[in-house]
Amino acid sequence: MNLTQPLILATSIALVLSGCNNATPVADEIQSGDPLFCKASQQWVTNPSNPPAEIPGEGENLCQFYQFSWQWFINLMAAPQSTRNFLDSVQYPVFLGTEQNSCATNTVASKLFIRTQKDSHTSSSDFTLPSGTNQALNDAVIYDQQGNVVLYEARFNKNMCNVASTSTTLPAGTTEIKSSWRKISEQEKSDYVWIQSDTNANGKLESDEIYGMVGFHLVKSTALHPEFIWATFEHRSNAPDCQTKPQTSQGWSFASSQCASSLPNPKAGCDFNKTADISGSTPLTGTPTEICQVYAQGTRAGDNQATKNRANITTINKQLQSSFAALPSSSELQVLSQYKLVGALWVSDPSQPSSLENQRGSIQLANTTMETNAQQGFGELSYSGNSNLQPAANCFACHGYSGPQSNAQVSHIFTHIHGSGEGK
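RESULT FIELD:
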């Protein structure tokens, strides 16, 4: 896989606070100094090399966690050595599965995979799902509006290799990354963080082997938050909000204009968030999946500080997207104007387990491309209107945290990074 820095097309956007509360003000009406306003700094954009090791202000309010999340996302997207930091396998090795030692020095630059068995007509080394990768809700398979399957990759920070595989704890700074990718055209490269990958496994880079990033999970621990901060980002063109009428019904990667235009009460035939019914091998092309985001900003009416949480996320997003769009086209960060922070999740008291009462931030956090069918819990309900809303199965539902002395259990890959039977 080779990374080529793209030229960026600046796009101006208007963000509106969305959710269940129709009285929530638009982002433009929230001014600096208002408790609903979450301030971003231009220095994060101009000098992304020094993100904080701890939550600013020790995490006294919601905004500080979103400031932390954005600073680290920007740092990971920076390319000081022509390769984006998160794609640098020296810093963040690719997780290869339980059979292989992901900590060993290797030449694997990227490993995109599908969520179930590969299509029987592709090369034997194509898209192999790494064993030990616990995927969301029945290894849900989704297809974009061009009918191409979405691919995934998992990475971790190299320092995890220095921790004994039998350890019950992981140190502050431990980082795991999961990203999702859709096949894009040459013309779309300016709107995406993109990679060119030899997914045909023929030893050659083909002109159509270009993949744009549509989702990004950033999971990182700090000294004060051993439960990890669980943040997720998406491309802003992924999918419309389920609960509001979209400003535009066109241009979504995972929703047709006909179905998007019928929201918030989908018309017949628009079965949102129902993933592909795949058994056995998975075709690399299939029927497009209709997707919408059930809980904008990962927030449901009645959640802890729901209005403030939505406003904090929306205001910090808008500031940074404007800053990215104003960068010169030569900057690898300008494309981040096309991405948004969906939200982040953590606990109020890290000495206690991650019970619902102890959770803070985006309580319904889910990424439309990674937890598509878990946005309404484990029941695999597809969205068919407001009357069908259920709480999401969020990060802690799958990565349960029981306390600081056993925080290694939140990782699904830690015990597998050295390969079968191996470990430090």
